[in-house]
Amino acid sequence: MPTEHIFPTGAEAAADLAGRIARILSDAIAARGIATIAVSGGRSPRPVLEALAKAPLDWTKLIVTLVDERWVEPSSADSNERLVRETLLQGPAAEARFVPMKNAAADAYAGQVAAEPDFAALPWPLDIVLLGMGDDGHTASLFPGAAELPNGLSSPARTMAVTPPAAPHQRLSLTASAILDSRHIFLQIGGTEKRAVYARALAGGAVEELPIRLALCQDEVPVEVWIAEG
Ligand SMILES: O=C(O)[C@H](O)[C@@H](O)[C@H](O)[C@H](O)COP(=O)(O)O
Q: pLDDT tens digits, residue range 5-14?
């Protein structure tokens, strides 16, 4: 059962989440000399990443990567890499080592072949995986109905390529096993629709129906959820 942190607004939830992330990363650096975080894209993480960038961390000891990426140029407004560079990797935080997902391959499938060694070489388990969730219950780029979903849920690889059934761009994504090879999973949700999907996911059922269940319906990795009521 996840630990829930409920706030009236998204801004308050984001500020609290950023503080929690900073404390865990600081403890990881103190304990192991290095800390790793994989962050999601989309709209929700922006205020968290902007607040985290201001945390007084030894950024030279931090590895930042992505939970998933749209197969677009990093200059694209749809790029998760661009989101991270514009929000988190600013000021002192720009000293962090960033491991991108997008590479020069023509598509996400060739891109996955090129990216996998870089992700396999990360110091697993990751300290934090920051997830979001779509209204369809997807997380990362593990989309219900995607042809690649069964592989994404079972593969021992760290990354997978996927063509979402109803979202733009091919994607590169962490697999379920990579997401679960972490010390902390944090999920950020807000709004009525997502809170309803979250409640359905918690009630149990097939992970293929609501892939967020891969994180919510397991007891191996501690999961905390930041819920904005507004
Ligand atoms: O690349 C992406 O789109 C994300 O990684 C994706 O999994 C996201 O977390 C959800 O789609 C929620 O997105 P919002 O935070 O924008 O609602």
A: 999 999 999 9
* Average confidence score pLDDT of the chain: 98
Helix (H, G, I), strand (E, B) or coil at 205: coil
Atom number in ligand 1 closest to CA 43: 16
The domain in which residue 28 lies consists of: 3-228
**pLDDT of residue 1 exceeding 90:** no
DSSP bridge partners of 188: 226
Say how many domains are in the chain.
1
Task: Report CA Rg, the chain.
Answer: 16
CB 41 less than 6 A from any atom of ligand 1: yes
Q: Specify the residue with its C-alpha closest to ligand 1, atom 9.
A: 132
Q: Is 130 in the pocket of ligand 1 (CB under 6 A)?
A: no
Q: Which of 37, 39, 43, 44 to mutate to test the pocket of ligand 1 (most atoms within 8 A of CB)?
A: 44
> For residue 177, what are the contacts with CB-CB under 8 A and spacing of at least 6?
154, 155, 156, 157, 158
Q: What is the CATH number of the domain that holds 185?
A: 3.40.50.1360
Measured between alpha carbons, how far is 89 from 95 in angstroms, rounded to an integer? 8
